[in-house]
């Protein structure tokens, strides 16, 4: 047969017939079926590129899976009875995406060294405690998702992932440390450590020259490595819900210190003073569209001349002020929340309306600054430069 695509959305399908004749089959969708096993002759499907087995009661794969010489994507997401993968998986030299998210009984991985084309590896929600050291041989790997796993540490070979740009370790509650080799990830742009409640210390980060976003909220960090602010590409740093007590003297562009109640007055003053300096520098250089910072506090900076109670301020501007020297606006708000905020309402919104004297023209701008995941435990001050 010369079928290019076969879709079997049959929830009662428990068994497949022989497949060896489907020599032109490109895509096989078996997701949501009742299949417990795959016929060994699946390895004869030399043209197969996509294989979807997600959300099935599959317990194991045949070793012949390694013979799928054209396979690009293998999806086993939500296969909760899957306990292992065959060693032959490493023979899939053209495999680009391996999805194992939600395989809650998968405790161990086979050798991975042969997966030279792998770009995305999704292991989130598995029962993995460790990662094979040979993961460092995956030179094409760009995405690595390990969130919501009981993993305790990463192998030092993680630093060999020369193409990695997104590393996700959210809510790895047994993770206590990161290897020093993490700083060798020159292409890493996003590092997610949110909710790693036992992570008390970070290794040196100075080599992460491409890092743009660093999520440390909900960790057990007390202080930040001094070299974190040598990261010239860093634009987003989340530190909310941490026991952090002090900061180095230089900070970045989008900073969330919500519920960091251990910050003393000096640390808060440092944050605000640095914010003012950064706002001036960024405005003059016009090199960054916005600057955001939020932290515990109840005082509007004195240098902001226009203020008032409530949620609305009206003011007039002198004639001719909107010229080439105009650098933008700075907004500040004091916010107190006593109840949890939902996903839909968890933003601080700022709307600005401008009218000329004749009332003919009006411009409305709305910016959503911070997503507030948890209850605000005290008064907070939010400061933003825009545009």
Automatic annotation (TrEMBL):
Keywords: Leucine-rich repeat, Repeat. It comes from Hevea brasiliensis (Para rubber tree). Residues 98-193 form the Disease resistance R13L4/SHOC-2-like LRR domain. Residues 295-354 form the C-JID domain. It comes from the Eukaryota. The keyword Repeat applies. Pfam families: C-JID, LRR_14. This is Uncharacterized protein. The keyword Repeat applies.
């Amino acid at each position: 047969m010369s079928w290019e695509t076969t879709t079997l959305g049959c929830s009662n399908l428990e068994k497949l017939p022989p497949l060896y004749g489907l020599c032109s089959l490109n895509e096989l969708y078996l997701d949501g079926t009742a299949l417990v096993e795959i016929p060994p002759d699946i390895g004869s499907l030399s043209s197969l590129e996509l294989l979807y087995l997600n959300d099935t009661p599959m317990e194991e794969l045949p070793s012949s899976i390694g013979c799928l010489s054209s396979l690009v994507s293998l999806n086993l997401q939500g296969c909760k009875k899957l306990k292992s993968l065959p060693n032959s998986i490493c023979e899939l030299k053209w495999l680009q995406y391996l999805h194992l998210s939600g395989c809650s009984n998968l405790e161990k991985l086979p050798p991975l060294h042969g997966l030279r084309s792998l770009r995305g590896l999704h292991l989130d929600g598995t029962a993995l405690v460790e990662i094979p050291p040979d993961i460092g041989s995956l030179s094409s790997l760009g995405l690595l998702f390990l969130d919501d796993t009981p993993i305790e540490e990463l192998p030092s070979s993680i630093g060999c992932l020369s193409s990695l740009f997104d590393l996700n370790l959210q809510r790895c509650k047994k993770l206590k440390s990161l290897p020093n080799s993490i700083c060798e990830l020159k292409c890493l742009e996003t590092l997610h450590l949110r909710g790693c409640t036992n992570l008390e210390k970070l290794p040196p980060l100075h080599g992460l020259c491409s890092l743009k976003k660093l999520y440390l909220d909900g960790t057990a960090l007390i202080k930040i490595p001094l070299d974190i602010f040598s990261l010239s590409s860093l634009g987003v740093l989340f530190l909310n819900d941490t026991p952090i007590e002090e900061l180095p003297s230089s900070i970045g562009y989008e900073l969330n210190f919500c519920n960091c109640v251990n910050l003393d007055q000096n640390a808060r003053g440092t944050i605000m003073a640095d914010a003012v300096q950064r706002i001036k520098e960024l405005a003059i250089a016009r090199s960054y569209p916005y600057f955001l910072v939020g932290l515990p506090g109840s005082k509007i900076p004195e240098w902001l001349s226009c203020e008032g109670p409530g949620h609305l301020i009206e003011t007039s501007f002198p004639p001719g002020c909107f010229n080439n020297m105009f650098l933008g606006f700075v907004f500040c708000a004091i916010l107190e929340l006593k109840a949890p905020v939902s996903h839909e309402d968890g933003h601080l919104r700022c709307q600005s309306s401008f009218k000329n004297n004749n009332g003919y023209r009006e411009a409305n701008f709305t910016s959503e600054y911070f997503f507030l995941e948890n209850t605000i435990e005290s008064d907070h001050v939010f400061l933003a430069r825009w545009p």
